[in-house]
Amino acid sequence: MKTIVAALFLMISLPALAQRAYIVTKDSVDGGKIFKGKVTFENLEKEPSFTWFTKGKEEYTPADKSISLLKFYLRQYSIIVFMGTWCDDSHNILPKLAKVLDYAGYPIAQVTMYGVDRAKTTTGNEQRNYQITNVPTIILFKDNQESGRITETVKTSVEADLAAIIEQEMASQQPH
Fold first, then answer.
1. H/E element holding 141?
2. CA contacts within 13 A on the Cβ side of 1
3. Which of 44, 83, 97, 160 has its CA 20 to 30 A from that of 26?
4. C-beta separation of 37 from 23 below 8 A
5. Which CATH code of 3.40.50.2000, 3.40.30.10, 3.30.200.20, 3.40.350.10 fits the domain covering 20-172?
6. How does pLDDT run across 69-91, given as a tens digit for each residue?
7. Domain locations in the chain?
8. How many degrees, rounded to 5, is the angle at CA 144 between CA 120 and CA 103?
9. What predicted TM-score, i.e. pTM, was given to this entire model?
């Protein structure tokens, strides 16, 4: 009977555990929440203390020129993001990225995003596979090959930098 009860408890509790792929810890520097592991834009949006995300997304308007290119080509790429919920650069860039992806019609569910702690580690050490040294890092992949990345800051804007990666790859594929 104990075995049946234990098995039943395990079956009921496993889906609840599987719903969150990240852990939440308290930042020893500023007392804020650190999300570590696989996270989504929705996770960031739903956290009441992350007003930076909602406000940043509402206030940003992407440039039309770059969005036109992204609407046409970005779906050919997969995107992996490493970010820190404690990081000012992530606070600046992540809401803009979410807005750009919305404007470009990119399927947000296809973005793989990892929250890192201040040591830049994830729960599964995914940062090692991608040589993450700074956050945020936004990596574009096409055909399982890295096409380019935005690391820590943007040169022009999120949308222009993403468009530049795509344009550079397209130029390199042209016959010379």
1. strand 137-142
2. 0
3. 97
4. yes
5. 3.40.30.10
6. 999 999 999 999 999 999 999 99
7. 20-172
8. 75
9. 0.87
